[in-house]
Design goal:
The protein has 10 helices and 12 strands. It is of the alpha+beta class and 305 residues long. Strands 1, 2, 3, 4, 5, 6, 8 and 12 form an 8-stranded mixed β-sheet that branches. The radius of gyration is 19 Å and the shape is globular. The protein binds adenosine-5'-triphosphate.
Length: 305
Amino acid sequence: MTRADTGTRGVTVRVPAKVNVQLAVGAARPDGFHDLANVFLAVGLYDEVTAAPADELTITCSGPDAAQVPLDRGNLAARAALALAERYGIEPAVHLHIAKDIPVAGGMAGGSADGAAALLACDALWSTGASREELLEICAELGSDVPFSLIGGAALGTGRGELLTPVATGGTFHWVFALADGGLSTPVVFGEFDRLTAGTDLPVPAAAPALLDALASGDPAALAKTLSNDLQAAALSLRPSLAATLAAGTGAGALGALVSGSGPTTAFLVPDESTAHRVAAALTASGTCRTARTALSPAAGATVV
Ligand code: ATP
């Protein structure tokens, strides 16, 4: 591994985490993926990825969870740089630095966020002239959640989650996220979902009209009533202690609570900023999570800063 060219500042992209306000999961498809109806909301917890010229592709990471992030070509940021370089016939001579604040393996699409950010940063560094559509195509090849990390805001993902339709939001929603010790593997959680639902006739996943109306109205109480995650039972089965975290946040005044994506981060929708701080303090004091963070949604997608 070589060092980045520290004489060149490079391009930095800021990218948000996500929470799924609805995650409806259908039966496993022949290709192993599940059909989803996935309503994504980008939330204001951010990673920053900086791409700078270097002798070869190298990657570093800083932040509280940095030790859990792979620094080889399995890192989604590296895969994004390689995919863009290959498509445009460019030598992937770039150093990528990830300043990581999104929990790792937390169900908040941190790796996908870094993939989208690296793609945008390298695109700007190399002046490829790629269109938004071309970048979104590369994102979809990298992973189901990567296209949403690029666009941000709020969107409905169908297919395996990568076919996006923007969704209207009528205001700012306040969230508290309880971060757990250790991660949960997304494939393992889907495996547990398959085990728990074996022999059941699963409905075709679809976005709930009441949830879309609640997002459009900007009314957190209405949104809280419609939050749903079909992976929650599987995440709780693998990590039963999350039930106590959910109860602690709800008991402290959250309007609604759910496991974020495949977990183990839990998400609490609150009516306003002062409740957010109160719920975060109660969650931290409860001893049922590692720490709690407050954030606003919707947040903008990957952006050059
Ligand atoms: P999702 O919500 O999309 O299911 P997640 O938030 O649960 O994902 P990630 O933080 O994306 O999980 O990490 C999942 C795994 O991906 C990690 O355990 C790690 O091995 C790998 N990974 C690859 N690239 C990255 C990256 N840039 N940051 C974090 N993890 C990465």
